[in-house]
Amino acid sequence: MYLSSILFFSYIYYLLQIDIGLLDSDVLFHLGIARDYGRDGFIFAVPSAAESVWSEGYGDTHFIYHQLLRFVPVFGIKLWIALLMSVCLFSFLIYTKAKNKRDIFFYSGLFLFGSYVFTGRLLFGKGLLVFFPLFVVYLIVWNRKNKWAILSLTWILVWTYPLSPLVLLYSFVSNSLSFIGRYRFHKHTDVSLPSIRGFLKEYSLFYYTLIGFCLGLFIHPSFPNQFYAFYLEWWGQIFQPNDIEKIAEWLSPGNLLFFQTFFVLILISFFAKKDGDHALAILFAIGFISSYFTTKSIEWAVPVGLLWLGSSFSLKQKIRNDKFAVVFGCLFFFYAGQLAQGVDYQIKKIREENNLTSVFLVCGKLETGTKLWIRWDDFPVFYFNCPKLIYPFGLNPIYSFMKDPTRYQMIFSFWKNEEENLSELPYYLGYDYVIIDSKKHGSFLLAMMQNQPNWKIIHSLGTSFLFRREKTSAAIHPEKIKIKPTNLTIPSAWGR
User: In terms of pTM, does the model score above 0.85?
Assistant: First the structure.
């Protein structure tokens, strides 16, 4: 029964994988690495991202998933993601101890349609696809008899995804709830309170988790670059400097997205009552609140909520009620339609606004090592299609800020400063080609570049324009004038 359900949903996952343009930026980036750096050995630097800290030393916080990606052919990536999503579903069904058709289809529907925002993020092919099943295994073996299994799993989880501190938090909260329960029991009896030794024993699983976490952090294939990588993931992206461009994951999701993310989960949580894994319930409550202020929290709050609901005996009892099954079956069906509409919108958006095939063909003919000026969020797809070129930024603006705040502020100002003509800035920083998308980046940039005789359009497609710096007399080259562009406030160095 498990197998038939998983095969059915695998087919759905495969159909939802529409276009490679929908893939997560990390996936595109590492598919490019797999193709152009070879499939053996580790990556120690990313020289193509010239303005990024990873051009000096690369620390892979998604190590296991990214190494697996290097063995996946590009044409098979949709099937690969569908397979991993099915593994996630299978592990979830095992955790819920679903035993009959109704249980299996309810929890399968809950996983797929309980939060289609979360499903959409999984369809991007994120490292969460590997972290989630291993975290489920961690919860299943959570027992004092399995201390060494807990330690080993934690070690591996640190290498899978930056969400690994979630394991540390869960172990602490779970052991604390257990200790509080025993304290209340002793308080209402004549039995003496637990000794220091008893206290330490109560937190033994947390200690083994902590040891595994430290081993995963210190004994890492990306040594010693992983320390700086985890620092940026766990601190830099939570407490960003004010001078850094705020990306979508750092912003609040907005009321509509927040509602779409948690509506079904919150509705079903009323039937979970007070049973289930209380540590997961607390973590879900924390994630639910924090998700209102940052989209990034959705990524871990939803799977924790799913696991909490899956551990509820009261909810399992409700599933057997015919009326309950009909109501929530209709609800999942409605959300399935919403998901399909969202995917259809993405398809149209990609086909109409992001068709850069001919631009990639032109850029692919440029000499190896040519510096091409692009926006930071365009780096993954350009690197995937034209890996021989050199680009500013790389995957995340914080990586560029951390390498050189001054240069980052200059680059950022080029894309955002509508009042000053900064068309010479790319050449000043060593770039001879510039890509401008008038619809995506702003028409002011296109007008600014077109009004400069030193820049010439050598290719255009729709709203995308490729400019080349024309050779002119050295007297007007900005690199001969060692001054920063006007109206730029250079931030002080931060965090390094």
Answer: yes
